[in-house]
Amino acid sequence: MNRFGYLSDPLFLTAATAYALNRWLLKPLLPSPFLHGHFADLLLIPAALPVVLWLQRLTGLRQHDLAPSWSEMILHLAVWSLICEFIGPRWLHHGTVDVWDVVAYAVGGVVACLWWNRPAKTISIRTP
């Protein structure tokens, strides 16, 4: 199995770039409800999980450099959903409760985990 690239992972770089483009270029120019609402939510896991796992690796909380597992993704999905959709709106009076945000986090997480855990390509060398 290949080492996970953390901050050099292609999906992370794509998601982080898409987030930045959406936040500072697309949203100000386009009135799209999807871009203003749930596009960034789809990017939460692919853009944030590699950073968190990298920090966990640096501090010794993560003991390997494998791709994010389904259990790691689900744990972080649950924690971020709880913080962003329950604690923040109810106790910190910041944001609103939106179950569709959690759906978007989950969809982005599933797609990311499928990508990160796809089978490695094997190169076959034919000999005459």
Question: Can you offer a commentary on this structure?
Answer:
By secondary structure, this protein is mainly α. It has six helices and no strands. The chain has helices at residues 10-29, 33-37, 39-42, 44-59, 70-91, 99-116. α1 (10-29) crosses α4 (44-59) and α5 packs antiparallel against α6. The chain is globular. The mean pLDDT is 91.
Would you summarize the structure shown here?
With 128 residues, the protein is an all-alpha fold.
Q: Provide mean pLDDT, rounded.
A: 91
The residue ranges in which pLDDT falls below 50 over 5 or more consecutive positions are: none
Structural class of the helix and strand makeup?
A: mainly alpha
Oligomer state equals: single chain
Distance N to C terminus? 29 Å
Helix content: 55-70%
Q: Count of helices? A: 6
**Radius of gyration based on Cα positions:** 17 Å
| SSE arrangement, N to C | HHHHHH
DSSP, total strands: 0
Which word captures the global form?
Answer: globular
Approximate strand percentage: under 5%
**What summary fits the major beta sheet?**
none
